[in-house]
Design brief:
Number of helices: 5
Number of domains: 2
Oligomer: single chain
Structural class: alpha+beta
Strand content: 15-25%
Number of strands: 5
Largest sheet: 5 strands, mixed
CATH class of the largest domain: Alpha Beta
CATH superfamily of the largest domain: Beta-grasp domain
Strand order of the largest sheet: 2-1-5-3-4
């Protein structure tokens, strides 16, 4: 198979890369672009560790082909912080001790950011429903939910 040349935008920056036609977006991000914050947990779209946004829509990057990134806006965990300033969600995860091993954390943060862009004032049930596709084996979920709810409150300025 011949490689495909892809032009896209990742975290606001124009990017070009070559990829195999059957290569996943997750592998492209990690292996070709060096964005290793996106984690592989299951490889089958069941765990959410590889969550990114494509044109603002939350997706499991293990289920999307790298070639599908052509002309799209890709958002990863590396795009959340602004330089040394953490995103409110990242700060709240630290404050609430909502992380342990870190495998699920980038995907949960990307998913939570996508939720708060769509719904800045979610109920606890809505947060739990939205994050249901992101599995965590270490923390349980209470600290994660509290961190997201606290971040939502702060982001609204409430």
């Amino acid at each position: 198979m011949s490689q495909l040349q892809i032009s896209t935008t990742v975290n606001g920056d124009p990017v070009e890369f070559l990829c195999e036609p059957d290569e996943s977006l997750m592998d492209v991000l990690r292996d070709r672009l060096g964005l290793t914050g996106t984690k592989e947990g299951c490889g089958s779209g069941d765990c959410g560790a590889c969550s990114v946004t494509v044109d603002g829509r939350l997706v499991c990057s293990c289920l999307v082909l790298g070639a599908e990134a052509q002309g799209r806006q890709i958002g990863t965990i590396e795009g959340m912080a602004k330089g040394e300033k953490l995103h409110v969600l990242q700060q709240k995860f630290l404050e609430h001790a909502a992380l342990q091993c870190g495998i699920c954390t980038p995907g949960i943060l990307v998913a939570a950011e996508a939720l708060l862009k769509e719904n800045p004032d979610p109920t606890e049930t809505e947060v739990r429903y939205w994050l249901a596709g992101n599995l965590c084996r270490c923390t349980g979920y209470d600290k994660i939910i509290r961190a997201v709810m606290d971040a939502a409150t702060e982001m609204r300025g409430a």
